[in-house]
Amino acid sequence: MTNPKPFIYNCNSHPRKRNILVISAMALGIIYYLILPVILSDYYYSKNFPLAKLISGYADQLDKTSYFTILALYFIFFILGFTSLRTKRHAYTHTKNSGIVFYALISLLVIFQLYSYYALRSYSFKGYAGINWNETNSAKSFLSGLNIIYTTLAVFFYTSNQMKNFRIILLLLLANSVFLLGLGGRMFVLPAVLAFLYIAFLSTRNIILSKKMILIFMAVPAIASTILLIGLLRQGDDINSDGLSFILLAEVFFTWIGAGSFIQYNSLPYFAFPKELIASFLAMIPSVIWPSKLEFISKFSSGFYYDNPVGATSIVYVMLANFGVVGSAFACFILGTILKFLSNGSTKNALRMSYFISILSLMPFMFFRSNSTLFLNCALSQAVIIPSALLIISNKIENLLKAPKGRSLRALRSLDH
């Protein structure tokens, strides 16, 4: 097997790059989803964009000094949590190449992938009159989750230097991403883009100036422009400055409605019991195992009110409803500690590196605009559990098939561990 050490060695040699990635990802989410809507609310209102009056009303009634102060304190607590653990380096463990059994499992996903394309063929590139992302659709949900699964697998194969497998998964990922963009599912495409930007950044020997960093700085605006143009095409609008501004700002302003309305409608507690967060973990249990799951989870309502006319759920609601104003500071500290733990473990092997990069790719956008159930499902089930199961089960079966007859029983027992 080709030695995959250079990539991991580079990460171990420059651990501060992983620190920069984590802190930058969180800062980007805070600025984009929580600060820009307040700063640019007057501009949005002046352009008379959709829901401009509603958004401007929430922004005008906001105590901006307290709001920005609390955001700064939360970010400081996050950094304190992230720096509470020492940065560690690990000896890299080589990863076995995936073989035919893995692709037999992947082929099942591809079959459902093609079937979903067929089921959704009439919605692709039909504008916002097409598929409604606020309504449950099994084919749409499958393709969205599949993009995250493919992203984790692509990162795994790249970091383990299995380039043939990487190219195959990359082609599947690209095909699925194009289809999702046609449906308007850019939030499930952006994590894949970020994951590869992270890899490019971690691969550079010089953080400040290198060919890869120059390419990254060139790629980011190019990718953003492409997504904006696709958004305009889906709406059927002419390409102009106002149209581009709306496509760029609509996501963040529509999401901030949840934050602004939540702050205005509710008396915010200092501490809260995370009922909805607990319900989100319980929601991951398959209904086959727990038939009455939905009836039980419905009792875990937070009791708070907020507006979300386009379906997005602001992180402001998720944090304050589950932990309270003061409790959210400690939650940010714990979140920082968890991400530092993932960062430290990412150089042990390619699988842990794929966990770290995939979960971090969800942070700047999905974490700040999704409810806790959706985010946990993406971060745990689709970025960790399913890719790991595909890789581990396929390797176990291949070991069983290749084992001599005298060792077949031991190989079979190994499937239980």
From TrEMBL:
The keyword Electron transport does not apply. NCBIfam families: glyco_rpt_poly (TIGR04370). It comes from the Bacteria. This is Oligosaccharide repeat unit polymerase. Keywords: Membrane, Transmembrane, Transmembrane helix. The chain crosses the membrane at residues 20-45, 65-85, 97-118, 138-158, 165-183, 189-208, 215-233, 245-265, 277-294, 314-338, 350-368, 374-393. The lineage of its organism: Bacteria, Pseudomonadati, Pseudomonadota, Gammaproteobacteria, Pseudomonadales. The keyword Membrane applies.
